[in-house]
Specification:
heterodimer; A: mainly beta; 7-stranded mixed beta sheet; 12 strands; about 0% helix; B: mainly beta; 11 strands
Chain lengths: ~110, ~110
């Protein structure tokens, strides 16, 4: 069964901390994405990557960075966590065909206090 | 400015009846559309898709209708079941892009027994 695995289901961090969210996929997908989900706002794209060491800004990249050193792993980094980054974070991957859409991980609920 | 809009945050339907979820888009360059379903504490899962060359696609109890002139799509679930209770997101991708999806804000469907 194909999978996108996010390392943590729940995280609580303090304001100002550096936070790492890890995502691993086992489908050999080229494309990987980080979204955040907030009530009333749906899924908003933070960053995405088409290939190893490549990254592109999404709609809301401020306060975030990413790293993709290996094809299967895509990390989201909150350089200095703030309370407005409290959210559900979703990682996804996709192959080259549009019909397959995205495969999502189960999400990480991050609370910044 | 949201390019994909789901104007109904919630919908309640009686078991066995039809559920109709609506989605509007503004970018005429979108040519592939998808619906995802999301349960609490899980990632979204792909449900059904439609290309802009079609106006209807059916998969079991789920049918998606596309009206390009109105820039509107809808998801019909017949008959609705309590297990269909979830948040439904519509998503769209741009012509020529196999990668990036733009999501709506979601509609919480509740199917009452």
């Amino acid at each position: 069964d194909v999978k996108v695995t996010q390392s943590s289901r729940y995280l609580v961090k303090r304001t100002g901390e550096k936070v790492f969210l890890e995502c691993v996929q086992d489908m050999d997908h080229e494309n990987m994405f980080w979204y955040r989900q907030d009530p009333g706002l749906g899924l908003r794209l933070i960053y995405f990557s088409y290939d190893v060491k490549m990254k592109e800004k999404g709609d809301i990249p401020e306060g975030y960075s990413v790293s993709r050193e290996k094809k299967e792993r895509f990390s989201l980094i909150l350089e200095s966590a703030s309370t407005n980054q409290t959210s559900m974070y979703l990682c996804a991957s996709s192959g080259s065909g549009r019909e397959s859409g995205y495969t999502f991980g189960s999400g990480t609920r991050l609370t910044v206090v | 400015d949201q390019q994909v809009k789901q104007n109904s945050p919630s919908l309640s339907v009686q078991e066995g009846r039809i559920s109709i979820l609506n989605c509007d888009y503004t970018n005429s360059m979108f040519d592939y559309f998808l619906w995802y379903k999301k349960y609490p504490a899980e990632g979204p899962t792909f449900l059904i898709s439609i290309s802009s060359i079609k106006d209807k696609n059916e998969d079991g109890r789920f049918t998606v209708f596309l009206n390009k002139s109105a820039k509107h799509l809808s998801l019909h679930i017949v008959p609705s079941q309590p297990g269909d209770s979830a948040v439904y997101f519509c998503a769209a991708s741009l012509s020529g892009s196999a990668r990036q999806l733009t999501f709506g804000s979601g509609t919480q469907l509740t199917v009452l027994p």
